[in-house]
Amino acid sequence: MSEPVGISVEGVHFGYPGRPVLRGVDLTVEPGELTALVGLNGCGKSTLLRLTAGLLRPGKGRVLLGGQDLAGLSRRAAARRVALLHQSAPAVPGMTVRQLVRQGRYAARGPLGMLREGDDAVVRRALEDVGVAGWADRSVEGLSGGERQRVRLAMALAQDTRVLLLDEPTTYLDLHHQLDVLRTVVRLREERGLTVVMVLHDLAHAARFAERIVALRDGRVVADGAPEEVVTPGFLAEVLRVAGRVGRDPEGNWPVCYPDHPLPT
Q1: Which residue from 54, 129, 153, 165 has the least number of CB within 10 angstroms?
Q2: Integer distance in angstroms from the first to the last C-alpha of the chain?
Q3: What domains are there in the chain, each with its CATH number?
Q4: What angle (nearest 5°) sits at the alpha carbon of residue 243, between those of residues 198 and 39?
């Protein structure tokens, strides 16, 4: 297995005409680290993931994977180095689980390779690692939201990269499936030696499952550190604009938040 790959974001600015999104972001994610990005809607979290996946180009600054500048890579070349699980995606009518997961091999196999029938070893492993091999011939349309998210995670793993980015992977899922997906991500990161960055809205999940929390506000990094160091009542007020209290889980000792009321934005 290849060694984990680190991420370096250096002085990145990005925006649209009349609407700046990121305003000079510096961030280093160490190889093999699991980092959660948090912050209010519109603070730039998803944009930062897309820049890190090579889907967007910074207006200023640069993003490096394993020391290589993404600006010098095509999208397909970037997809061979980093996989991004988008927030949501519509089911493709008539597509089976196996067929959807095989789409993750496009960057490696190309359009002609995708025409070949049969799964390669990477697809088979992705199906097995996420626990969906038994569903391979089921229609994606017939799956529940939680089942579909597991399949989409298998598709991202089929890119066979060392960096995995997840944009709100628990959105629209009930609590059972939220925990199921996050526990699966933690396990796969350990088994595969992945570097993982995930955008999470639920601070409780970020504090429990990530070893590092990076918070954005107004397109800038305003907090960065281990959950037990970062998550405080001041953090809740400054980053999430809520007044609240912070305690500790009696068994795992991770921070537990008790939000009281919203603060003016």
Answers
A1: 129
A2: 47
A3: 7-81+161-262 (3.40.50.300), 91-160 (no CATH)
A4: 20
